[in-house]
Sequence to fold (86 residues):
Amino acid sequence: MIHSTLVPTIADEKGEIRQVPLSALLRVTQGEDLKSITAGKNGEYIPFRFYEVDKEEINRADQKADRIRLGSKFLRKFFLEQTDDQ
Fold:
């Protein structure tokens, strides 16, 4: 792929634009690295700890979920009242 791809250069003094093979600009090396998953068709990947979760973390998560539920109930009620008034 990089051998067959041509990249145009900036025009020289005569206004000529030349084509340079991409392989002249890149160096390909083999290597190993850790894989990372950043996103997929379902959204971002967020790693969770399934083991060694203490009760304090569970309580904080439950409290956040409760606040989100209350907020969504408030918004629903607020917007329904707005549409009833019109």
Observations:
- The chain has a mean pLDDT of 77.
- The CA atoms of residues 17 and 45 lie 44 Å apart.
